[in-house]
């Protein structure tokens, strides 16, 4: 009973989900809807479908959503955050673009089923640490090993931009925001790395490959994205301009606490934002208490493509509730849903397969007894990845049952 559930078998016959409220991830809702899928692919979405070869699952009164997508996460690399021996999420050194996070992805993690049972079925697993921390990959969360889990390998590089300002600890005699003395030094390191990588990408006769530079070549061809982890408004502008200076084509801002201050710049440069940690405090004393909840609406209303994520692997299970929070602070609920489904799929470049419920796309689907974005009503009853029926048991539910039985007896 303490083991992680075995991965589901491939779909062998068509499945028909009937009678539910369907949220298709495009902002549309279908009442008393029907969704059919076969061989892992959606074959029908609407209100009227009949095929005797399909197995019917009655979902009357329930709600159907696309499988949720968790970007920029260490889920599967981190088991117990407070126990360093259980974490395999970073490499020593500051410049490690050749690191491939997916080869350390642990499909036997006990944390993954707790996240999966809350509707999160697709993840972008990324490394952390240093300045250039390495490459991320996109995986599905029900597999025997990392090779089986891969949806898209090496989708992007992750650059952690240095902080220009910091708040000293409470024991420090320094008070208020302080300017980092090492900021400009690390910015120069980033520029020299990008300069070398661009030059290397143009070389035609390389006799001895340089593996860090090889790993960065696809940034300049546009096949991989550069995910820049940065919060401060001026630093966002500096980071984007530097990446553009060296002809990097696809840029995504991760974190983006101050992104709402520079929406014109982001829109002009077509830069999407993955907002991190909706449930957090404001960065500055003068900011409104609810600013972290309203940032998503401020960005979306300005025409920026926005997705949501969380910096903690264990807390990422609350992803649907972060969308619920931004829905309560200025966003339509279907627009908030897009920030954890179709918007994120577009930002990661997997929108042809995931993110919405449409004919021809992957049957990666979740069924909830109530509103998925409301922690009071959300209860996942069925989940499918590529049409495979996923086991929703996990260590949390096992312990709940164990101690419930103990005290009832």
Helices and strands, in order, run as: EEEEEEHEEHEEEHHEHEHEHEHHHEEEH
The CA-CA distance between the termini, in Å, is 20 Å
Largest sheet: 8 strands, mixed
Radius of gyration: 22 Å
- Could you say which overall geometry the principal axes of the C-alpha atoms support? globular
Helix coverage percent: 25-40%
Work out the number of β strands.
18
Helix count from the secondary structure assignment = 11
* Helix/strand structural class: alpha/beta
Strand % is 15-25%
Provide the residue-averaged pLDDT.
Answer: 94
The low-confidence runs, each spanning 5 or more residues with pLDDT under 50, are none
Fold and architecture overview:
The chain contains eleven helices and 18 strands. The mean pLDDT is 94. 26% of the residues lie in helices and 24% in strands. A hairpin with a 2-residue loop joins strand 2 (29-38) and strand 3 (41-46). The longest helix has 20 residues, at 183-202.
What descriptors fit this protein?
alpha/beta, 8-stranded mixed β-sheet, Metallo-dep_Hydrolase, Amidohydro-rel, Metal_Hydrolase, 409 residues, Amidohydrolase family protein
């Amino acid at each position: 009973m303490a083991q992680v559930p075995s991965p589901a078998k491939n779909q062998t016959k068509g499945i028909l989900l009937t009678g539910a409220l369907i949220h298709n991830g495009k902002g549309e809702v279908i009442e008393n809807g029907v969704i059919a899928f076969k061989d892992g692919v959606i074959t029908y979405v609407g209100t009227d479908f009949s095929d005797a070869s399909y197995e019917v699952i009655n979902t009357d009164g329930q709600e159907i959503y696309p499988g949720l997508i968790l970007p920029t996460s260490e889920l599967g690399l981190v088991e117990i955050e407070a126990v360093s021996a259980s974490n395999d999420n970073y490499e020593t050194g500051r410049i490690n673009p050749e690191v491939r996070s997916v080869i350390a992805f642990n499909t036997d993690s006990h944390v993954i089923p707790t996240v999966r049972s809350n509707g999160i079925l697709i993840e972008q697993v990324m490394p952390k640490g240093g300045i250039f921390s390495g490459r991320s990959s996109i995986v599905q969360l029900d597999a025997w090993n990392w090779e089986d889990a891969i949806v898209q390998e090496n989708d992007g590089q992750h650059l952690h931009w240095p902080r220009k300002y910091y708040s000293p600890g409470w024991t420090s005699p320094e008070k208020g925001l302080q300017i980092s003395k090492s900021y400009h030094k690390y910015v120069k390191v980033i520029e020299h790395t990008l300069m070398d990588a661009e030059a290397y990408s143009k070389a035609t006769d390389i006799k001895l490959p340089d593996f860090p530079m090889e790993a960065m070549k696809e940034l300049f061809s546009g096949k991989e994205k550069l995910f820049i982890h940065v919060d401060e408004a001026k630093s966002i502008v500096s980071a984007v301009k530097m990446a553009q200076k060296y002809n990097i084509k696809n840029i995504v801002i991760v974190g983006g606490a101050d992104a709402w201050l520079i929406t014109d710049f982001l829109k002009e440069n077509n830069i999407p934002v993955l907002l991190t940690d909706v449930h957090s405090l404001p960065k500055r004393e003068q900011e409104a208490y609810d600013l972290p909840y309203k940032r998503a609406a401020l960005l979306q209303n300005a025409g920026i493509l926005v997705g949501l994520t969380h910096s903690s692997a264990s807390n990422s299970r609350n992803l649907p509730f972060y969308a619920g929070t931004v829905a309560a602070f200025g966003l339509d609920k279907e627009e908030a849903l897009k920030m954890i489904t179709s918007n994120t799929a577009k930002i990661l470049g997997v929108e042809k397969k995931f993110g919405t419920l449409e004919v021809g796309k992957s049957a990666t689907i979740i069924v909830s007894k109530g509103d998925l974005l409301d922690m009071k009503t959300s209860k996942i009853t069925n989940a499918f990845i590529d049409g495979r029926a996923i086991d929703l048991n996990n260590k949390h539910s096992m312990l709940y049952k164990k101690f419930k039985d103990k005290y009832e007896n």
